[in-house]
Predict the 3D structure of the following.
Amino acid sequence: MGECLAEIGYKDMVAMDLSQGMLEEAKSKNVYSGFDQMALGGDLDYATDEFDAVISVGVLLKDMPLRIPSMSLRASLNPAD
């Protein structure tokens, strides 16, 4: 996904994954400016309003309501003007 976004001009993208292996895969794409090893579902180590958009791809959650990850990510989004 990051490669596609970079091709159309998006910059300053951050990759986040629980797996260090997946973060290494993201690094090999040479399109991300940051790499964070964290898990969805709890508090994330991002400032409030840190991101303009969040795209979640291939998220697998066991025994967790679907609303929990979206609530975790929502706090890091900039409010719409």
